[in-house]
Amino acid sequence: MRVLLAHNYFHVVGGADRFYHGVGSVLAARGHDVAYLAPADDRNPDTPWSSYFPTPAEYKTGSLAVRIGGFPRMVYSRESRESCRRLIADFRPDIAHAFAVHVRLTPSVLDACREARVPVVMSCNDYKLICPNSRLYTGGLLCERCRGGKFYHATFNRCLHDSSVFSLAGTLEAYVHRWLDIYRKNVHTFLFASRFMARKTEEFWGAGTFRWRMLRNPFDSPAHSLRQGYRDYLLYFGRLTGEKGVDVLLRAMSQCPEAVLRVVGDGPEESALRALRDTLSPRNVEFVGPRWGAELDAELGDARFVVVPSVWHENFPYVILQAFAAGKAVIGTDRGGIPELVRNGEFGYVYPAQDAPALAARISQLWHDPDRAVAMGMAAKQWADREFNDDAFYQALMAAYAEATG
Questions:
Q1: Which domains does the chain have, with CATH numbers?
Q2: Among the four residues 98, 221, 327, 395, which has the most C-beta atoms within 10 Å?
């Protein structure tokens, strides 16, 4: 099978980009021909497909006039559509698999696929199809005010980057794409990693108005080995942003003076979180900065357990799979797809998001029962090895492709 993969970034920025390349690697390893489409970018690694990469509109730098002038290309890029047409003509794919394509590629590439009669499946890793800021979260609160196509709320509440300009642009983009019905018109099957996101999309769009199926993100858990023993700390690792709920974790730690937390990561909230730490619990919380590769593996391998305190509807947090693959129990919130991974009482515990006392109780429970934490981590490892491996992902992926190519 010949597969065209389309995404906003060819270089790796975050989890969605790892997903994009993970799909390509799994397909290529099993003998499929894979072509890539993404915007041109100086950070892109070398690839034979770069001659097809369109130039994205610039929206983060330059004068206001320049950014306004480029707005139509951020909603619907004719250059991206033509690039996709050329790639389809030369590569002749059997199917196209789209990931995030808004703003940088734009969903114009979906029109190119439909015109060439190439069926499309689309992996949804955030809420962009139903929410202009992609998160169903703004101003520190969950938000569904745009339900029913009321996207003007995004402008009134400055939902995108806390900017009137970006928020207005996101609002107009959402209205244009809704008017064109550009996603449902062109995508045969939408692929979701969590049932929560699929059901939430049905609430906004209407059940039965689009095809969808589950496809959890690729992750090869058996490739991650266990480390013997642990040190005396629990671990948070990830971005330090408001929706990650690290402030709730710090408040919980102030109620667990016997426990020790290591915070791995950086982000725009780091200074505020350090100040909160200094006020609440200066003795048992340590910020260690970002860690990658072997350094992160060591931090994770030595931890007693992991906390995922997100206060937004996380879809499919890779940090949970990384923790499970390392044999670590996870305490996570009841938001989004987190409870679908963290089986309460089996692989860790689920607690009500933003409830610091409830989180403190769970931390204290596992901290004082390390054997229980180890047993939960081993159960999570066994489950992850069985459910998250390249063969299992490949079978699910090919089932989705077979349905679309029918």
A1: 2-125+181-220+389-405 (3.40.50.2000), 221-387 (3.40.50.2000)
A2: 98
User: What confidence tens digit (pLDDT) does each residue in 349-400 have?
Assistant: 999 999 999 999 999 999 999 999 999 999 999 999 999 999 999 999 999 9
| CA 1 and chain centroid, separation | 27
Note whether 130 and 205 are within 8 A (CB): yes
Instruction: Provide the mean pLDDT of the chain.
Output: 94
Interatomic CA distance for residues 237 and 266, integer angstroms = 9
- Tens digits of residue pLDDT in 91-105: 999 999 999 999 999
User: In the structure, what pLDDT confidence band is assigned to residue 63 with cuts at 50, 70 and 90?
Assistant: low
Where are the strands (E) in 127-284, listed by range?
A: 137-138, 141-142, 189-192, 212-214, 234-237, 261-264
Q: Please, are residues 176 and 205 in contact by the beta-carbon 8 Å criterion? A: no
The per-residue pLDDT for 66 is 55
Please report the DSSP string for 88-134 in residue order.
Answer: HHHH--SEEEE---TTTT-THHHHHHHHTT--EEEEE-SSTTT-TTS
For residue 281, the model assigns a pLDDT of: 76
Instruction: Tell which residue, 260, 241, 255, has the closest CA to residue 305.
Output: 260
d(CA 28, CA 33): 6
DSSP state of 237: E
The number of C-alpha atoms within 13 Å of 22 and in the hemisphere containing its C-beta is 21
User: Which of 81, 84, 87 minimizes the C-alpha distance to 33?
Assistant: 87
CB atoms within 10 A of CB 351: 25
pTM above 0.90, yes or no: yes
Rounded average pLDDT over 6-20: 91
